[in-house]
Amino acid sequence: LLPAEAEALVRALQGTELRDAGGQGWLRQHDCVEKLNMHAILSASAGQEQLLTELLVTYAKVPVLIGELISVEIWKHKIFPVLCRLEDFKPRSTFPIYVVLHHEASIINLLETVFFYKEICESAEDSILDLIDYCYRKLTLLAGRSANGQTVTPAVLVPPQELQKQAETMEFEISLKALSVLRFITDQVESLPLSALTRMLNTHNLPCLLVELVEHCPWSCREAGKLKKFENGVWHVVPPEDEVKMTKLDGQVWLALLNLLLSPECQRKYHFDGFNKSQLLKLRVFLTDVLVDQLPNLVEMQRFLSHLAVTEPASPKKDLVLEQVPVIWDHILKKNAGKWEAIAKHQVKRVFSPTEEELKLQACRWAQTYSLDMMEALAPDKPRCRVCGVEAAKRCSRCRNEWYCTR
To answer: Cα dihedral sign for 397, 402, 404, 407?
Structure first.
């Protein structure tokens, strides 16, 4: 995107009503988010994401994105199940519903890309509390997953079941993005509001939740005697020599723990009672020499845990009388309480039952947003020659699918 295009897209971002999800105005917002998301990924890979960061801060759009994120999360929990239960709802295409489900993934991916910067975290202002709560809900889902992180599904799925399966797969990937966002938030503990720190440490007890993730590691599983790990959106078999190698997700958990446990301010506010202490000491068994070699900062964690094991930390000072609370989740729930079924039926009639002509128009718009060249630029792996397997630069002009290293 050109700078002027990026600025126009950022300025166009605005909050939407839950009832309007999937409508024409909402789809324009989704297009803006998608284009900014793809632009952010490409800019980050080139080390040029400073412009987008400045635009989001200048136009105060980070709270807007957080509000939209929570709105579509509530839609998924309250409206989507009602749509799947409606017996007389047999849409010509389920893609309009999928787009709403995918909206949450697009926003959290955009936030993951830009939250690396302190200015973005600070510009979230009071909505940072809502984002912390959102991340907590997602990490709780991660910790509660089955041991292998995958579920067996029937070979043939009818549309509602197929959508539910896609939503479940997407939920797992969204939760992993939320883990990264939370880690970036913990990087800024020194500049966070006091209420945010209290919420992370004492209201949600995030250190103990992160210990659960270290213990059960939902992005790793054993299948038929082979270790599989989830990276870059896919499960892949790990070669025996790489089994002890730390993944990016492992690193995010350990870095978040380092930020939350070793910061003087966090140590002053956290309740190191009997339960919390016993949970944190479970980490010692995972702090092997191989792990510490890969992330040397963990030496400080080893020292801290050794000290914690033989001392009784002082009780935290209760110096906060007034505490801010997140408002976006409660506001949306109160505004739409008792209307979930009515909203679902309204959306079935007005949004999710498009005519063939409307579907064609929408398909053209999606084709422009998700162009083939853009998708290839975003792909983590370079195309390979079909004949020899080396990196390829020439695409077949006839089928546009196969790649070759020479003519």
So the answer is: negative
